[in-house]
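Suppose a colleague, Dr. K., hands you the sequence of a protein chain of 118 amino acids and asks what its three-dimensional shape might be. Before reaching for any lab equipment, you can write down a predicted structure in token form. Begin with the sequence itself:
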Amino acid sequence: MADHFEQEQPSGGSLYMSISNTIVRLLREYTGRGPTKARTTIRDNVVLVMLDQTLTKGEQSLVAKGRADKVLEVRHEFQEAMRDESMAKVHIDPDLGAEIFILDSAPQRDGGPSDADA
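The predicted structure, expressed as tokens, is then:
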């Protein structure tokens, strides 16, 4: 399946746009609303798609009422439901995982350990 993706998809900037558009389309199909912005970054074998303003109006209402945990729970279910289709669109073959944290702003550098030290 990876070879099929690599042969069909364009290279360079249009590859990034193609991945972003695919993920936005999948989210729209599964949740009824797609994000307003998407940006794909590829570094080595890691593909990261950053999405802005993804919550539906109902999810926004739940968050405002202190029920963010329920929104996260449902979003996790959407991710599970979309897994096979998104993997077919973006090559994800090896058994690898990642934990990604989104910060409000860039961390201050204090001379602590670098990425290489982790």
